Structures are given as C-alpha cells and as structure tokens.
C-alpha cells in the first residue's frame, strides 16, 4: 500500500512520515518542493511537488493508494479531483473545526468521491510561541482574556492519529475532532509553561486599548481579529474531547509536558 504524504517537511507532515515508518509502513512517498533540502529519512521515496501547485500533483499521485492531504484550501478541489483520477482509495485530510476557514478542504475532499477521514484539530499547542518573546525576555507575560479557555492539541498527536487512520481500516467517513486532554485558560497555560521551565511567570491582564496595542505590536493587522476570537472563547470555552486517546489507546500529550519537550522555544 503506497501512501503519499503532502507537506512532508511541514510541522505535521514531517511527523506523519515518521509515525508511518514507526508503524511499519514500507511504501511511503513524501512530497516536497526541494528534495535535496528536505532531509527526509532513508527508505522514504521523495518526490518533487506542492499541493498549492496542482500541476505538480499527477506524477506524485501515480500509483498512490492513500493520501495525507495538508490544508491548502484554494487548491484542494483540483488536488482532490486529481487524486480521484489517479485511483486514490482514501484521503486523510487535516483541516480544522467545521465551518471555519478550513471547511473548503473538507468540502473538496467530499466532492471528489474518494473515501475520506477528516482530522479536525482545534488550536495547536505550538501557538504558545506567541508568548515566547516575552518569556525569553523575563518573567512577565502580558496578555488578554486570561480566563478564555480551550484545549489545544499537540502536533505530535495530530500526526500520530493521521498515521494510525492512514494504515487502519474502519475510519472512513468519520470526522475526528482533535483536542489536547484538558481545557485550560490562558492564565493556566502560562503557569504550566512556567512550571515546565522551572520558573514563576507572572500573568498580567490587559484590556481595552492597551490590549489592542499589545496584540497589534505582536501580530500586526490581525491583532484586533485575534482579540475578538479570545472574547468568543471567553464566552464559549472549548471542551476537551477524548478522540486522541480513543484512537491511539494512550493519553493525549498534556500541555505542561508539551512545554517541557519544547522548552527551547522559550529559552
Ligand atoms: N495553528 C493552528 O492552531 C492550526 C489549526 C488548524 C490548522 N492549522 C494549519 O495546519 C497547517 C500546519 O501544518 P504543517 O505545519 O504540517 O504545514 P503545512 O502547511 O501542512 O505544510 C507546510 C509545507 O508545505 C510545503 N510548501 C511548499 N511550498 C509552500 C508554500 N508556498 N507555502 C506553504 N508551504 C509550502 C513546505 O514544504 P517543502 O518546502 O518541503 O515543499 C512546507 O514545509 C497549516 O496550514 C496551519 O495553518 C493550524
């Protein structure tokens, strides 16, 4: 069974390749625009291409049975049609919560007629990098909507679930909402990062104009949009679901442990 991993040097895609190999897959093809730079593991067939450029896909899809589809909404319809034409028998796409920006990916997958599994991660734990410059500079973290809570998921777990369902039968037609094991407020996340680093971080709550100024300085024109999202989350906290543990038979990675493993991000 030949499996094509798109975005194979991306954060998730690269780990999907590793997870497939760890599970004994022997016919893994990895897609990258630059095979020489990609440094993919031995035993993987590396092919040149990018899902954002559908013209590069027919050669990559030749002889492929199952496809891991990285999220590129604009070109997903064309890529999925090509996958159907190439005889792909399962598409595992990684998008996001239903009805959001990534919905176009799921729509394209369903329209092409190939059996599918949708992976629907919420926020990635790696988005904690928004606090990294402040934590590298000192012990104070200025932020907003400290009580807004969600259950971010580790990219490691997304990749493990992707590999599992690419190799298993019986998941076709399922949408797998993926979260971490617990819902945490922003205040609690900063405290967890502090514990992981062995430091006592002080959370400083900003509101109104100071909050807008701060987030605009961090993320430019998207600052206001991001604050609106936090307000929504404060009103409607995201709960944790058990999908990762149910599929993998082991607990999802917790936030503090994730921060411990990625401590270099904050040093
Ligand atoms: N952060 C969140 O909370 C969240 C939540 C849901 C979904 N997402 C989305 O999930 C995805 C994360 O997956 P991922 O890290 O595995 O990345 P990805 O977007 O799936 O794949 C990135 C790879 O695509 C290839 N690529 C080639 N040309 C590119 C181009 N012009 N622009 C972008 N990529 C190009 C690159 O590999 P080569 O250079 O080797 O070809 C790159 O390593 C992102 O699209 C992210 O927006 C994020």
Write the layout of secondary structure elements.
Blueprint: E1 3-5, H1 11-22, E2 28-32, H2 35-38, E3 45-48, H3 57-61, E4 66-69, H4 76-85, E5 90-94, H5 103-111, E6 116-121, H6 132-137, E7 140-144, E8 149-150, H7 155-167, E9 174-178, E10 184-185, H8 186-197, E11 202-206, H9 208-219, H10 223-235, H11 243-248, H12 255-261
Parallel strand pairs: 1-2, 1-4, 2-3, 4-5, 5-6, 6-9, 7-11
Antiparallel strand pairs: 8-10
Helix pairs in contact: 1-7, 4-5, 8-12, 9-10
The structure holds NADP nicotinamide-adenine-dinucleotide phosphate (NAP).
Write a structural description.
This protein has 267 residues and is an alpha/beta fold. The protein folds into two domains: 3-121, Rossmann fold, CATH 3.40.50; 126-152 and 182-238 and 254-266, UDP-galactose 4-epimerase, domain 1 (Alpha-Beta Complex). 41% of the residues lie in helices and 17% in strands. The chain has helices at residues 11-22, 35-38, 57-61, 76-85, 103-111, 132-137, 155-167, 186-197, 208-219, 223-235, 243-248, 255-261, and strands at residues 3-5, 28-32, 45-48, 66-69, 90-94, 116-121, 140-144, 149-150, 174-178, 184-185, 202-206. A seven-stranded parallel sheet has the order 3-2-1-4-5-6-9, sandwiched between helices. It is elongated and about 55 Å long. The structure holds NADP nicotinamide-adenine-dinucleotide phosphate (NAP). The site of NADP nicotinamide-adenine-dinucleotide phosphate (NAP) has 19 residues, from helix 1.
């Amino acid at each position: 069974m030949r499996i094509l991993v798109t975005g194979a040097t991306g954060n998730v895609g690269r780990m999907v390749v590793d997870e497939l190999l760890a599970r004994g897959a022997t016919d893994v093809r990895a897609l990258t625009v630059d095979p020489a730079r990609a440094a993919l593991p031995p035993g993987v067939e590396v092919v040149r291409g990018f899902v954002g450029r559908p013209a590069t896909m027919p050669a990559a899809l030749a002889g492929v049975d199952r496809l891991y589809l990285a999220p590129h909404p604009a070109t997903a319809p064309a890529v999925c049609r090509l996958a159907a034409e190439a005889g792909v028998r399962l598409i595992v796409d990684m998008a996001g919560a239903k009805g959001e920006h990534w919905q176009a990916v799921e729509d394209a997958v369903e329209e092409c007629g190939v059996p599918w599994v949708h992976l629907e991660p919420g926020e990635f734990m790696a988005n904690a990098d928004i606090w990294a410059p402040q934590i590298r500079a000192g012990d104070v973290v200025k932020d907003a909507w400290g009580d807004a809570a969600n259950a971010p998921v580790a990219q490691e777990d997304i990749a493990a679930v992707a590999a599992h369902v690419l190799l298993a039968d019986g998941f076709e037609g399922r949408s797998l909402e993926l979260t971490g094991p617990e819902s945490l407020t922003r205040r609690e996340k900063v405290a967890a990062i502090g514990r992981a680093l062995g430091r006592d971080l002080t959370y400083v709550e900003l509101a109104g104009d100071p909050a807008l100024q701060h987030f605009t300085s961090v993320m430019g024109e998207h600052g206001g949009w991001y604050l609106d999202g936090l307000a929504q989350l404060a009103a409607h906290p995201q709960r944790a679901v058990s999908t990762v543990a149910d599929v993998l038979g082991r607990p999802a990675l917790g936030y503090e442990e994730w921060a411990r493993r990625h401590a270099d991000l904050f040093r």
